[in-house]
Amino acid sequence: MREIASCFSEYAVQISDTSCSSYSNKSCISPSLNLVPSIQNDVTCLYRTVLSTQKQILITVSWCKNSLFQGLNINFGEDSPNPFKLNTNSRLFRKLRGSKSFELQGLRVEIMWDLSAAQYQSGPEPVEGYCVLIMVDSEVGLVLGDMAEEATAKRLINSATTAAKFSLISRREQFSGNALYSTKAQFCETGVPHDILIRFSEENEGLKYPVLSVCIDKKMVIRVKRLQWNFRGNQTIFLDGLLVDLMWDVHDWFYNSGPGSAVFMFRTRSGMENRLWLEEKMVQKDKDKVEFSFMIYACKNM
Fold first, then answer.
1. Is 131 exposed, middle or buried (0-12, 13-18, 19+ CB in 10 A)?
2. Lowest mean pLDDT among 14-18, 130-134, 137-141
3. 72: exposed, middle or buried (Cβ count in 10 Å: 0-12, 13-18, 19+)
4. Residue 134, class by beta-carbon neighbours within 10 Å (0-12 exposed, 13-18 middle, 19+ buried)?
5. Which of 1, 33, 200, 266 is the most exposed place for a label (fewest CB within 10 A)?
6. Residues in CB range of 82: below 8 A, 6 or more apart
7. Would you state the pLDDT for residue 217?
8. Residue 45 pairs with which residues in a beta bridge?
9. pLDDT for residue 1 is more than 70
10. In 3-state terms, what secondary structure has residue 131?
């Protein structure tokens, strides 16, 4: 009897390489389009940290950028009494290197950061030259940035310091501008970053009708025609040995009186799960099992 994952993969879109397939006669879309890609103005990541005492902490890290503010926000749990905020865009109050300590629910938390050499592309999240290190009760609770390895090694030299287990649970990116969204996502720790391109366009078949295209590594995974009628839906794809549910909801693009917004969600699931994630309870039954969700919140002007 075949494994359930192999049965699912027969009906899922395969994304195993970057070459074009016969899935569609328009299976590849070049990023060099007439539209300028939308601007990424917010990236929020949720991490789960498990201390040596088996106590679990949820840490939310947000990188933001707008006309008034660019910086970093860190929250612990759902009702964090002492959120950490750092404005890297202010000439008067910015502090690109430093540390902050405080008590949180009986735990001693210390946040250390170094953004003095951070380099950015178009988004608010630095791509290199930075370090964010979070200590929880003398344990390394979270490490971010390409310069974090050296900082972590210095901490671990102290025999009283240990490294907690942490994992990325979800990532949310917010865009604004045209109906073209380009980003990257890594769906598991052993996987590689994949290029994701989402595009809204119009095509002619006597009359113009809206079309939604989603490509991963230049390979089309969905192409939804007459989008004003098919504004919600889902598709299963097979990526890095994982089943990934892709959901879209673009209702507000057409029926909102103001600027339209849309949501695109990718969520991994194991091969033994036979229901879409939308039908599942959002409760982690297996503490050792880490699922990942990636959401794109997209705003555009029609």
1. buried
2. 14-18
3. buried
4. buried
5. 1
6. 76, 102, 104
7. 94
8. 61, 171
9. no
10. strand
On whether the CB atoms of residues 8 and 236 are closer than 8 A, the answer is yes
What strands lie across the sheet with 207-216, from one edge to the other?
A: 180-185, 194-205, 207-216, 219-225
pTM score, two decimals?
Answer: 0.81
CA dist 102 and 110 (Å) reads 7
Residue 237 · residue 216 · CB < 8 Å: yes
Token duo for residue 85: 């905020």
Query: Taking a C-beta distance cutoff of 8 angstroms, is the pair 213, 222 a contact?
Result: yes
Exposed, middle or buried: residue 227 (CB in 10 Å: 0-12, 13-18, 19+)?
buried
Taking only the tens place, the pLDDT of each residue in 248-293 is 999 988 787 767 789 999 999 865 555 544 444 444 444 445 578 9
DSSP lists the bridge partners of residue 211 as 201, 225
CA distance 154 to 161: 10
pLDDT (mean) for 55-74: 89
Q: Which two tokens stand for residue 184?
A: 């990257």
pLDDT tens-place string over residues 169-187: 999 999 988 888 999 999 9
The pLDDT value given to residue 9: 42
Show the tokens assigned to 183: 């980003």
165-177: strand order across its sheet: 13-14, 232-239, 242-249, 260-269, 293-300, 165-177, 39-50, 56-65, 70-76, 84-87
